[in-house]
Target: R3H domain-containing protein
Amino acid sequence: MDLLGSILDSMDKPPTVSRHPNALLQKQKDEYAETLKLFRDQVERQIHKFLRDDRAKDYQFPPTDQIHRSVIHDVAEVANVWAYSFGEEGVDRRVVVFKREYAPSQRHLNALRRGEEWNERVAETLTEEREKPPEPRKRKDDFVPNCSYRDKYRRLIGEEAALAAARKTEANSSYGCVPSENKKDQRSIEQTLADIRAKKKKQSERL
Model:
């Protein structure tokens, strides 16, 4: 039994009252069957034309009801093309068919289900975003200890004096931020002894 026959057999039949109502019902069924047959022929011609168009990748049928969509799906299956339904039932539900070599991606299907536009530009944009390498995490600036004697002394003794002090306080990495020259006694032995004697002399004079 073909699709049209199964659709017609599934239609509810009113209780038999007389031959006249039965004849009327049969006439309605025959007319509806002829309408569906014409619709199927139209769909077959449209899909055949679609397959012969080398530039076409997909084709969208106008919105229609569930029975007519089932006819489109049946013809698409026979023609070996993909067929999907999109849209809201009773509003804009329609069937879109795709050639086998242009099967839609999951992103494509999801966009159509959401009612969004899909074209080559959108596809290229999504591909670029997917292939774009992630941006590296920004590293914090290298920590610099607050050992600038120039800045320190500038607040205390002014710019010129700070420059002079900074020249004498070149930091040595082994001593941290304290100048190594300030940690050494650079006096000669004779000078050291002379300073000691002078210091003792001053102390004795005070006594």
Observations:
- The chain is about 55% helix and 5% strand.
- The first helix runs from residue 3 to 10.
- The helical segments are 3-10, 19-52, 66-79, 106-113, 120-131, 149-157, 159-167, 189-206.
- The CA atoms of residues 61 and 95 lie 6 Å apart.
